[in-house]
Amino acid sequence: MGFKVVMQFLCCWYTAHVAKAIQYYTAAVYEHHAILNPNSTHLTSREFALEFMSKNLDIYEQQVIAAAERGVEIIVFPEDGIHGFNYSRASIYPYLDYLPPPDLLPWNPCHEPDRFQDTEVLKRLSCMAAKSGLFVVVNLGTKRPCESLDPKCPPDGRYHFNTDVVFSDKGALVASYFKLNLYFEFGFDTPPDVQYAVFDTHFGRFGLFTCFDILFHEPVVNLIEKYQVKHLLYPTAWMNQLPLLSSIQIQRAFATSFNVNILAANIHHKTLGMTGSGIFSPSNSSYHYDMDTEQGHLIVAKVPVNPSEEMCPGHDEKVSSKYSDFMNSAKSCDQMDKTEHFMESQGKHQEASFHGRMMYDNFTFIPLKDNEGEVHVCAGTLCCYLSYQKHKLADELYALGVFDGLHTVHGTYSLQICALVKCGGLRTETCGQEVTDANSTMSFRLWGRFTTQYIFPMIVTSQVTLQLPDHWGWRDQNCYMEKTRLELGLVTAALYGRYYERDRILH
Ligand SMILES: *[C@@H]1O[C@H](CO)[C@@H](O)[C@H](O)[C@H]1NC(C)=O
Ligand SMILES: *[C@@H]1O[C@H](CO)[C@@H](O)[C@H](O)[C@H]1NC(C)=O
Ligand SMILES: *[C@@H]1O[C@H](CO)[C@@H](O)[C@H](O)[C@H]1NC(C)=O
Ligand SMILES: *[C@@H]1O[C@H](CO)[C@@H](O)[C@H](O)[C@H]1NC(C)=O
Ligand SMILES: *[C@@H]1O[C@H](CO)[C@@H](O)[C@H](O)[C@H]1NC(C)=O
Fold first, then answer.
1. Does residue 468 fall inside a structural domain?
2. Which positions fall inside the CN hydrolase domain (predicted)?
3. 212 inside domain
4. Do 282 and 367 fall into the same domain?
């Protein structure tokens, strides 16, 4: 049996259980092995579409019941889990439910089944939530007619939205979200306006976004900063790509970076490279990553109602994730000089840097040739620094890489990245390749002088397991991350920066 659920926890047990009573709710995410439609580009009838989708809905129903038995109060299912993917605009049509606009709400589809037509999927989901008495969060395709007066209305007179919906524990439709950042989904339209889908429960304020959205400013950053959302519900259908963007890697980093909880449900399809779901608080997580079986998996975890209460003692003092803290610091110039002197005073000969492709981007790398030392490497406006000490030596090559620029393959977005990676082999040309296993353990401190404040700290160890940094945050003008006592071989340690403001300029 290859699957693993790994519980992580830092030094938080003491704060959580002794210092003061922290409130929790119980949440679940279901990594669903979706039954996919082999004929997704064929035109079919609504009747056939409903019959096809009912196979996935049967599994959803079993999981909602199983979750309710374990005391779960909210469950999240993945993106595309009901209808599958690879549709065209024409072929997806029979799979779409009608979603009434907000002015026709409230609506409880289970209690008022005849109020709107073409809502069979919504009704079935609403009844699952009402019967089991928990919040149910799912992704489905929806349609909504539009007027020719609407300049964004498609020529066929209707929108097709990739949609997340939430049913309350009574079955009422309480929130819906139309995915903004579509990922080559030809059956769906980009919504005419950004949606901020927010709802309140007695255990906190929740917000919704979907899959590729996690890499963009809208709607994510405003949900957190403007709408004060602390719990993010995240249906996804994510194809893993190491060294920097495996599903659980970005989910883990997201919760830590924004100091929020994220409930992430991915599709399970190992042949498509899709696995990796979890429930993440800023410093704790329960996740699932399985490239061995083709089975779905239910994850249940306790989630702090206030994510920052679970922070470790001292964590807040040592770490500040606010850019303004260092921007206003009068001492920053002195400190900057010290960083440079520190690097120069090492006086060691640095290996020559080289260029290599990683995640389609042209990184500048410097190899780690010694068992301990300091290296640095710069590109564009970004310099990255690493101080390291290997503990368990294996015949493996590591390199420190930097990228400061616009990513243009499979999406366009600006990045600033400092990444320590294990290379695919022993030659420098292999640095940047996808690897999942490693034997070298080390202690390190990684930092860089970033110009964006949005940094996602990520550490992946052998067999795609996750680690939290011991410390991370801003000191002077540098974002840094420290880790000692790694027990598993290091695959990637990165400060993955998203430079949202620069997307528009470089685009
Ligand atoms: C897919 O289409 C083919 C050809 O039309 C048909 O024979 C087959 O039964 C369809 N499969 C499913 C699962 O609908
Ligand atoms: C989706 O379509 C592409 C080609 O259009 C095909 O290569 C791929 O296998 C399809 N994926 C699924 C899951 O059907
Ligand atoms: C956090 O850790 C505790 C103890 O290991 C566990 O019971 C709980 O479910 C975890 N919560 C998350 C979100 O992983
Ligand atoms: C990567 O960038 C460097 C420096 O800008 C350049 O010399 C090199 O040709 C680039 N490599 C590729 C493959 O684009
Ligand atoms: C790690 O070490 C073990 C035992 O020596 C070996 O079997 C395995 O291939 C090594 N893994 C890697 C990624 O080198």
1. yes
2. 39-305
3. yes
4. no
Find how far residue 72's CA is from the centre of its chain. Answer: 22
CA-280 nearest atom, ligand 3 = 13
Residues 367 and 291 in one domain: no
86 lines ligand 2 (CB under 6 A): yes
Q: How many domains does the chain have?
A: 2
> Is there a cis peptide before residue 243, judged by omega within 30 degrees of 0?
yes
Instruction: Tell me, yes or no, if 127 is annotated catalytic.
Output: no
Q: What is the pLDDT of residue 341?
A: 40
Kind plus residue range of the DSSP H or E element containing 413: strand 413-422
Residues 6+ apart with CB under 8 A from 102: none
Q: Of 458, 78, 66, 77, whose CA–CA distance to 285 is shortest?
A: 458
Using only C-alpha atoms, what is the Rg of the chain?
A: 23
Nearest CA residue ID for atom 3, ligand 1? 39
163 neighbors 178 (Cβ within 8 angstroms): yes
> Which H or E run includes 502?
helix 500-506
Q: Which two tokens stand for residue 313?
A: 């003692």
211 catalytic per annotation = yes
The mean per-residue pLDDT over the stretch 164-176 comes to: 98
One of 31, 73, 79, 120 is an active-site residue; which one? Answer: 79
Whether omega before 106 lies within 30 degrees of 0, making that bond cis, reads yes
With CA atoms as reference, report the closest residue to 33 among 52, 1, 56, 10: 56
Q: Is 79 a catalytic residue?
A: yes
Domain membership of residue 424 as a residue range:
330-506
Tokens of 341: 């002197």
What is the C-alpha separation between 281 and 73, in angstroms, rounded?
17
pTM of the model as a whole: 0.90
List alpha helices for 104-235, DSSP H: 120-132, 220-225
Domain boundary among 253, 282, 310: 310
Residue 109 has pLDDT above 90, yes or no: yes
Q: What is the mean pLDDT of the chain?
A: 89
Ligand nearest to the CA of 358: 4
Distance 421 CA to ligand 4 centre (A): 19
Q: Per the omega criterion (within 30 degrees of 0), is the bond before 307 cis?
A: no
Of residues 251 and 5, which shows the higher confidence score?
251
408 lines ligand 4 (CB under 6 A): no
Domain match, 126 and 237 both: yes
* Helix/strand/coil (H/E/C) assignment for every residue in 221-269: HHHHHCCCCCEEEEECCCCCECCCECHHHHHHHHHHHHCCEEEEECECE
394 class by beta-carbon count within 10 Å (0-12 exposed, 13-18 middle, 19+ buried): exposed
Pick the last residue of a domain from 310, 345, 374: 310
Task: Identify whether 266 is part of a domain.
Answer: yes
- 396 with 266, same domain? no
